[in-house]
Amino acid sequence: MAHYRNNSELFTERRGIIYTIFNSLGKSFHGSRVLRRSRRFGRITKNRLSRWVFFLAALFSICLTVYGLKMFFQAKIESTLSLPHNLQQERNIAETILVSDAGRPPKSKHRKQHFPCEVQFMKSVDGLVEPKSYMNFSQFSLEYVDEEEKLSENDLFEPQFGGHQTLEEREKSFYANNQTLHCGFVKGPLGYSSTGFDLNEKDKAYMFSCKVVVSSCIFGSSDFLRRPTSRLISQYSKDNVCFVMFLDDQTLSKLSSEGNYPDDRGYIGLWKVVTVKNLPYDDMRRTGKVPKFLSHRLFPNARYSIWLDSKMRLNSDPMLMIEYFLWRRNTEYAISNHYDRHCVWEEVLQNKRLNKYNHTAIDEQFNFYQSDGLTKFDPSDPNNLLPSYVPEGSLIVRAHTPMSNLFSCLWFNEVDRFTSRDQLSFAYTYLKLRRMNPERPFRLYMFKDCERRALVKLFRHRTLPSPPDTA
């Protein structure tokens, strides 16, 4: 063992592997670089190896966790399926799952495409004559509650446009016989203010003269004004059909600011503008049901009427529509089915998912209908009275027969009593009317939605609908 000096001190020289390597490399500069690289390579290898070990351990733990959860849920499902239960219980479970999704937005998916289909109209209105036997429907007399007396000295009494119909009066109103029933336009006792939907006398005189009517409305500036396509409407219809657009002051002002001024006779294109004062409801959608359902009250001398939602432009001759939907089929009321939904259960869930109306109010109405006999729509049932329980009520063609007028009053009363979502009350009203009058059929024709699309041009609303009621 040798010694070497460092700052005048002797240290023992240790010869080993490092000494041997330096010797083999001749203690060159290149050799010292190789030594440093070998040390660094060792440290890097150890770090990488530890990282890989940690990564593989974590991955293994995740796999075990996923596998354990999978086995757990599979065991839960198998245990559920192994329990004995009948078909009705399965349906109840499915309904509970669907109802639990109420209030959530629907899952994103591609929107279905809907297209028009051919409608076999007559080629022209020339020679068009109402069939002699057409009005051979159920005949009875309808009178309407025009004024209500104050039932008590209660100071909380407030007149309502739809009146204060009791449940007993409601039940009796479904019988197709001579009767006096609530059907809107109900005034309060002397000294109380108007309940709404006030018209000036000049407009009333014009409406009393109408025999055939096409009507629509815009309240709360919710839509643009869509003028009927004049070139597709015969001169006969232009001369003999009343085209009436109901507006409130707000909408009239908005349309005027956009250049849609009524002329000296009160027309904008084919539309005769009728301004409504003192709207009966705060909910514009509910107010819109007045001209939609009660055309026989607004036009008491009319024999036929066509309702058109303001989101649509009429592209067909109204007289050809009356011939096609009513005269040719010997029906007194025509409305299209919904393009997507056919069961009230589905419509209830959709209204909740999209928050179309207060959920509690929807449940109250729906539960009431179920307790009074409303059942699910079964498309496989050959005895179904309708091809769908959900209408697309934006286009209605009707004759003003006693049964048609009664159905319109009953449907309006449901909208007045419950929610303004008229698609929820359509099937119930129709089925109850048929059930309570087996000897007096109501001839309602539900046509295809693609036919509706062939007759009108659809647009989007100008603004979002009025917010849901919180009542």
UniProtKB/TrEMBL annotation:
The chain crosses the membrane at residues 49-69. InterPro entries: TOD1_MUCI70 (IPR006852), TOD1_MUCI70_glycTrfase_dom (IPR048354). It comes from the Eukaryota. The keyword Magnesium does not apply. Residues 142-461 form the TOD1/MUCI70 glycosyltransferase-like domain. Keywords: Membrane, Transmembrane, Transmembrane helix. This is TOD1/MUCI70 glycosyltransferase-like domain-containing protein. It comes from Lupinus albus.
